[in-house]
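User: Hi! I'm working on a homework problem where we have to compare a predicted structure to a textbook description. Could you give me the structure for the chain below?
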Amino acid sequence: MVDSEEAVRRVLVESLELSRNPEDLDRDTPLFGELPELDSFGVLAVVAAIEERFGIRIEDDEFGAELFATVGTLTDFVDGKLTRAAT
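Assistant: Happy to help. Predicted structure tokens:
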């Protein structure tokens, strides 16, 4: 089983080119409004990277500030999409 939180942390670090290690982020790490790299272009980069990494599609009406509140909210969203895709 894939550790989706670890994978989400890696996607964030790589797609936003953060000067942190994935291990520096935890479920409660705030994202939108806290990471200057997560601007409108950053959101697009993260969404594209998540879609590619997990093989899911994030519809326009599914993402907003609440989705990118923390690493945990983003991970929970990805987990939900993966669960729905598996059924």
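For your comparison, note the following. The mean pLDDT is 92. The domain at 4-86 is CATH 1.10.1200.10 (Non-ribosomal Peptide Synthetase Peptidyl Carrier Protein; Chain A). Good luck with the assignment!
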